[in-house]
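Final report, results section. Input specification for complex C-07:
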Amino acid sequence: MGSSTETIRDLTQQDYKWGFVTDIESERVPRGLTEDTIRLISAKKREPAFMLDWRLKAFRHWSSLEKAQAEPQWANVHYGPIDYQDIIYYSAPKQKPSLKSLNELDPEILRTYEKLGIPLAEQQRLAGVAVDAVFDSVSVATTFKEKLGELGIVFCSFSEAVEKYPDLVRQYLGTVVPHTDNFFAALNAAVFSDGSFVYVPKGVRCPMELSTYFRINAAETGQFERTLIIADEGAYVSYLEGCTAPIRDENQLHAAVVELVALDNAQIKYSTVQNWYPGDKQGRGGIYNFVTKRGKCAGRNSKISWTQVETGSAITWKYPGCILQGDNSVGEFYSVALTNNYQQADTGTKMIHLGKNTRSTIVSKGISAGHGQNTYRGMVKILKGATGARNYTQCDSLLIGDQCGAHTFPYIEVKNSTARMEHEASTSKIGENQIFYLQQRGLKAEEAVSMIVNGFCKQVFRELPMEFAVEAQKLLGISLEGSVG
Amino acid sequence: MAVQTAQLESYLESFTDFVRATAPETPAWLRDLRDTAFARFCEVGFPTTRNEDWRFTNISALARIPFRPARETDRVVAASLASSHLAAWHMENALSRLVFIDGLFVPALSTIGALPQGVVIDSLRNQIAQRPAFVAEHLGRYLDTVRDPFCALNTAFLEDGAFVHVPRGIALERPIHLLFVSTAGPAHTPTMTHPRNLIIAEEEAQAAIFEDYVSFGAEIHAFSNAVTELVARGNSNIEHFLIEREHLQSFNFSTLRIEQARSANVASHSLLAGGALVRNNVHPVLAGEGGECLINGLFIGSGRQHLDNYMLVEHASPHCASRQFYNGILDQHAHGVFHGRIIVHKNAQKTDAKQTNRNLLLADDAQIDTKPQLEIYADDVKCTHGATIGQIEDNALFYLRARGIGEIEARRLLLEAFAGECLGRIKSGPARDYAQAVVEARLFALATPAPSPAGAAETKERNWEEVG
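Structure output:
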């Protein structure tokens, strides 16, 4: 076991590759959060009045929660108090008011994205993925806009959507995650700076993967983006997001909200590869990733599928869920969450069955290494009207090393007798005999572990779009090389 | 909060009376134990659904009823019951039968029988008087009165219950039957009882202990809040049973705290069939290496019953195995809760823990909330849990009907098969026969469609949550 233990150590102690800082001028608002901050953010973005009202309403709600000390404490994660007045809520790269093309973008930013492996300019040429890149608080570039425009698909930054499609924004904003939903959702609603907006019109199948790349660059800032995706009747869209941040000693807050709406026969596939800076080996620094993601299958036969690979962040607090309102709608959740060093993750999903014959599938794979604490927390709620609802849940945990923990907290609430649901969970470590078997066949311990871990996660990776699956596998390998129990 | 305060005052009054009434016979250590527990109860009060452990069970209806401890005089009246009144709950082949009326031991109705050398089966009250040092050594030592206010309340009003001591190497082949009868008393006022049992099995001892909760007389609100502390020393082999079948105005809360030493083997079987609001806590701690623990349960609810099962299995030592199997059958407006939690402590390597909860919902208004949890701090473990919720299979029903079996009979057979999984895990023969008879009677009532007038009467009752 000696060599394999070392291998694990090597693997688990790999450095974070995306920790560089880009030196660009940025425009920030003063530290702290008051009504004035919100008015300032709103003014900077030249928002219509309804947005400002909405933000202020959210801010007042958040303030009352903060006064009541209602910041959620129930999650199985531990961190010091967050000083919400010590955060800069808006930071934007200085730029010309409106960009005509990528050529006008600050070359430093472009270089950053190239380092991250997302050459925007190149991608514009190659067929494939349309990218919206969010740098600190604002969206800096969206590619392929014209091509998508021909089909009537709107894919742009949230600010642009507010400006150009205020009616759509007004109709759907906050319908899935209202500003009163929870503490961090309220905070996000008050101060969110940008994000992506997607609208796929009736009967259109989006021909390419849409993608957003989030990057926190500036120090002492929080990132609060908001994504809204609407798939109209019979539409299909697949959306990817990726995230990184530079290495810093202090903790940075990331509180995002994602809302998905699928109307009749529509289908949305949402994939995330989250690799925020996880903190160093002693657990210093790292991103607090407190995210609210929810999709509403509003129409009949609609489908929303979440796939996530969570390898980054010091603390992850994230429950992408589905409200299955339309009859025969389908919700899916596939997740791989990895915690290493002192990372903590409390993640899972919520499936709320309202409509008849709604179905949901949950597959969650948790991997804990080092001192990591990994928690699956999921809720399956089958309400009275959900006749014939069906749920299948599987959550497996893999333990690597003897300092880590894996926890499972499922909540199953069934109020309809025709419901069928199954829940299975298991926790184990990588078997010594499995590693022995592979080593016997000439694989190094490290490769063996990587192979076993990848096998463990295969069910989830299969759900990812091709390019992402490869990236996710690599990422997992890097975050975890040598993790033989 | 106002309700809480008023309630606590009523309990304070009861406690003061209780302390005064029992003062002459109470040793100082017991007084301290009660006082500390009562102080703790006053501090935390009754839990609300905001408390994670009580998320699915609203007890505000219970908190609002001014329960009083059953008075000595009431008990005297109750004790005028003849043993023929208790014939319905007679267990064949029992080694001893201890009868408790409203929480107090009634020797006239009990039979201890011939016991092997050194075995003590008695009331706790007698033992506190006769062997205070031995009892003080164990009583209240294992129970968590800090987290659970009902355990604190039981300890505050601790007075009587069963005491079982099986010395080293003795195997009791026949079960010990403990019958707890709650009566309406002559005053017909809501009464509460707090039975407290202490079971100590020394090394290599073997025994089966049966706790049976029943009601007698008029259906008025009654609150039984029982606690059993079970100490299983090295290599001992203990089976514990709990049957709850009080009438439908009863609140029954019970806690079984098991302390297992090296290689001890303990099985806990519970069967919840009666009661309006029932909460069954089972909390084994596997403190010695190589311990094995089986927690097996069946809950069958109908009407407006609320049956809550709260399991907490703590693996505190390496090489232990635990198994939890809970089956639930819920009809009409019944609400079932399964809360299973396995904690594997840091040093408990090579733990093998398994948890399964299966539920059958027979009616549209029946409801189940299940929360199987794993908390694992060791790395070399094998833990699984599973939960399923479903209905009686149409195919299975069709299969039986195609072979000429009537629908009611077919449903009963399928329910019995589902319940049979649990009964099959009982090792002691007489105990299994006894439990089976209870289950069969209960399932027969479920499988037979209720006549409509009963349904009309039912609508008058309100759901616990609506009351709260």
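Chain B has one domain: 2-466. The radius of gyration of chain B is 22 Å. This concludes the modelling results for the funded period.
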